[in-house]
Write a structure and sequence with these properties.
homodimer, 588 residues, alpha/beta
Chain lengths: 588, 588
């Protein structure tokens, strides 16, 4: 019992902070009315007419008739997609009115396991962003087809679930549920035996009996909806609909239209971003940007705000803690303009003022990182140009090879059969046919694997790009038209302690270092965004039509996205979940 | 993980039960559409097009185009108000479509403590009614002003909270919270430290800072709303509004009007009954009756159904277990007519069919009751007519006395000063002035207390009524115009092992036995209702204009209802919470 808060509520002790003269967007009653908020420490003590809470030492903020909303919550986001270390990430999203996130820190877990995640969560405690941890339900994603640094088995998951900040299991994959993978079922039982833990689905294309089975198994939220049918499939089954509006996928407009046109109940609907990249975060913002889109697409103001506050809190049974302006809730408060020109003006998180009319008031010092999240680039063997050779069958001069072509707007790959020359027994790429070498180099110090194949769709010429960000194993993905440039790019990436590198004609042309897990940078958002823009610029100069080529490249390693992938284990046929030979036959 | 349910959902195993050809009232999406429900054991496996779940041995029920709703939930009810033992109570409410209740079994606790409650919960397991236990937050209600059988201290409450069926603390009294009673605060801390436990408020007349303090302390629901102001006060503070529509208080119509007229968000609004008496339950029904009233007062069909299903489940964070037709939820299903002529036709609870077109299909045998809930009438001293004498000051012939007058429509009492004669040193009642003797006799074997006073408003002549039901201590309350009849009534009540007795001119004229805790009968609803109608009839013959005189009498013992009360400790001045002398002065 926080007796201080009670005293402020009762009026026997002055509030620490009173925001007055606002229009309260009440996500519980569904109303907007004039009033203020009184805060004691990090907690709201009273809402409405709170003049009685003002004392001599109370900080009084005049909202000048603007709207007061709860701080925003993102119910499904991987902060690692921003490439920002957790502290600059917190600064960035807080600046846009986001005061809480639910995240699995899955990418950190892939590299550094639970120990790494716990180190990042510890670093986050030095910020005002409230982080709820959703325990990764499986790391790596495809245990037999890739090598990861961290691994999550049921015992580790059980340990993680017992953390007080753990709110459930993340990314529970539909087909794994219907196949009743024993490890996953064991973790489901563990999570469901603990009150308040939620199973977050990853349920694309699950319909009918398959969707029923997932919900019957206990999954209560999902963020993989794309079309009208998906909306009905989730809500009718009592599964919370997380409408995704991120960088990699922007599904909200379609889904929201379905919700609004059909007058569906919105209490189980929220907006999440899933993945939000550095430049998008810098240029567009976070949930504030998604709200602008929702409002422009016809969502009522209170309804839209509910979708990034109380609805999300309820999905995790956290509604008594966060997600609304009411006594006892964390003092997460935004002062905003109205629905016509929606913008977050000022943000308070846990009672602390973060921004004042757009100006950031706080700065989180870079901490001394735990060793487990540093120096994570461990190659077992030196990388040379020869490392990337794909040998042709003896005596062959030309072969037919299977090239995977990425689509230009989404990193799904299709098959293309091409004839490629053989020189000195090595199959060569052919930029005239848009065929590049692609490889993934194991970097967790486990086996020295290098998987190799041929890539189309990127249209890069005269160099190579390498990155230590590669879903869902974060080995080093490298692509180029020159073995030498590829080797240089990988070695530079390792030198940086992880990062992204473009080599052009034998020289490093652009780079960014990700010293934390090979995934994250301590740079502030604006500086990091500048570096990433430069990477994009150089890649575009080298011929790629893809807007964010490193992001696409990172998904080419995901053995779950059809139809093909490259991992350290080899060239993957996704539908059959097997390693195949990219060389189909000898032509001559 | 219930793999059977998954198998049925996936279609690899036939369902045990399929209800088909219905109109699904989907409380999640807010829609009504055609479909069915497939059930495996006690759990829903699939909803919608469930033809694929039908196998050779599946029981198929044709809903014939009627509506399918979730089973109803009463989020705040004291079953003891029905005077039915838990098994006939379960039969009665299941017959009206109620498949789950949240209850504190507070009255049983007052008599027999946690042990008694646990015995009743055990008996309930033999029924299909799902009971969630809300632990009483304080027993007795007024520890210094009454004697109870059971007592709940923080240690007992902690033990009770650890039961897997415990969902929180019940009846957390507003002024006790704002006064920060240490025992209560300790129990709050215990409950709030356990995920999923809810603090249920009892917050009449709490406004502004007082209401803020209660919510800040963690209270998240309340059922004590009476007027428009109460609706706003709760919802705006993020406190779930339980609109009461019971026997003692029928507040829903007023509150619902406020909700609908102001277009308030209804997701935190539910309907409860609190107290529902035998005859009302027999003649009107339970939540089905409240729904008819809600629908007649303009509530949309889906919205009304949400108020007795998913909204209630969410208030207790039980939405993944009950409250909706979705996979994984308990198979609690009603087949109903539509909003114009709303009626529950058939009910399924935990997958078992309870009623078929109004016909009850199940019967719960009377169990062997645990000793702790039987033989609870323990008088320390014999009761004689002299037991009820109120002595006048020595030599007085006439005194001025303070009579408490009940209002005719609600058992609130007002002061009336009357002059009363003294005969043989004993102050006499005066039926010409409508002044009766009233007393409460301690019956828990603790101290033999008898509290005495004078009562007006009942207008009984020529006898006495006695009852072992007296809130909130359940000692024997007795009222009459003759010491002899009062003694006979009390002694007969004790002979019955508890119950309600009317003595007329020296003879027992009507009676009902409550052998369980002195509160409950094993009779089925219809038989018990008949006996209670007879008690009412005789009391009305004896002159009372009060419709349910024993119910009013039971509230006259409640030291919390203004302005006066009688307990075993004496005549109580409620505002000052003290025992006072009903004799004001000697007149002659």
């Amino acid at each position: 019992m926080n007796k201080e808060v009670l005293a402020v509520a009762k009026g026997t002790k002055p509030a620490d902070l009173v925001i007055k003269n606002g229009k309260i967007v009440n996500v519980y009653s569904g109303e907007i009315y004039e009033g203020g908020v009184a805060v004691c420490g990090d907690t709201i003590a009273a809402v409405g007419d709170v003049e009685y809470c003002i004392g001599e030492n109370t900080t009084v903020v005049d909202a000048q008739g603007k709207y007061l909303t709860p701080g925003f919550l993102d119910g499904h986001i991987h902060p690692e997609s921003s490439s920002l270390a957790i502290r600059p990430f917190a600064e960035a999203v807080l600046s846009h009115g986001t005061t809480g996130i639910m995240t699995d820190l899955h990418e950190v877990g892939v590299v550094s396991g639970l120990e790494g995640i716990e180190a990042v969560l510890k670093e986050a405690e030095g910020t005002d962003l409230k982080i709820y941890f959703i325990v990764p339900s499986h790391v790596p994603f495809s245990p037999n087809l890739e090598t990861s640094g961290g691994r999550f088995d049921p015992a580790i998951i059980r340990k993680a679930l017992k953390r007080p900040d753990a709110v459930g299991l993340s990314e529970c994959v539909g087909p794994y549920i219907t196949a009743e993978f024993p490890d996953l079922m064991e973790s489901f039982d563990d999570a469901l035996s603990m009150p308040g833990k939620t199973l977050q689905g990853h349920l694309p294309d699950m319909y009918g009996g398959a969707m029923s089975a997932c919900v019957a198994a206990g999954v209560s939220t999902d963020h993989e909806s794309f079309c009208e049918k998906d909306v009905f499939e989730r809500l009718r089954n009592g599964c919370h609909l997380m409408m995704r509006e991120g960088s990699a996928a922007r599904n909200m407009t379609t889904l929201l239209k379905t919700v609004l046109d059909n007058h569906l109940d919105t209490s189980m609907v929220s907006i999440v971003t899933d993945d939000l990249h550095t430049v998008d975060l810098a240029e567009r913002g976070h949930l504030d940007d998604a709200l602008r889109t929702a409002l422009a697409n016809g969502a009522d103001f209170v309804t839209a705000i509910q979708m990034v506050t109380v609805n999300c809190a309820r999905a995790f049974q956290l509604e008594r803690e966060i997600g609304g302006l009411a006594p006892g809730r964390r003092a997460d408060i935004n002062i905003t303009t109205g629905p016509e020109d929606f913008k977050v003006l000022s943000t308070f998180a846990g009672g602390r003022q973060i921004t004042d009319n757009g100006k950031l008031l706080v700065h989180y010092e870079t901490p001394v990182h735990e060793p487990c999240i540093l120096n994570t680039m461990h190659l077992l063997n030196p990388i040379t140009p020869e490392s990337f050779h794909i040998k042709a069958p003896a005596g062959a001069k030309k072969v037919k090879a299977l090239v995977m072509d990425t689509l230009p707007y989404i990193p799904f790959t299709n098959r293309r059969d091409v004839e490629l020359p053989v020189v000195d027994g090595v199959v060569r790429c052919d930029t005239d046919q848009d065929v590049l070498y692609i490889a993934q180099v194991e970097r967790h110090g486990k086996n020295g694997n290098i998987g190799k194949g041929f890539m189309g769709g990127f249209h890069i010429k005269g160099g190579a790009m390498a990155s230590s960000v590669g879903h869902d194993n974060h080995n080093i993905i490298v692509m180029g038209d020159s073995f030498e440039d590829m080797a240089l790019a990988v070695n530079r990436c390792v030198e940086l302690g992880g990062g992204q590198v473009i080599v052009r004609e034998g020289k490093v042309a652009a780079e960014v270092a990700y010293p934390i897990c090979g995934l994250l940078s301590d740079l502030p958002l604006s500086e990091l965004a500048e570096k990433k823009r430069e990477l994009n610029r150089v890649a575009h100069e080298m011929g790629t039509p893809i807007a964010i080529p490193f992001m696409f490249l990172s998904f080419i390693c995901l053995a779950a996205i059809p139809a093909y992938a490259i991992t350290d284990c080899g060239f993957i046929d996704v539908p059959t979940q097997s390693v195949i030979d990219p060389i189909l036959e000898v032509v001559e």
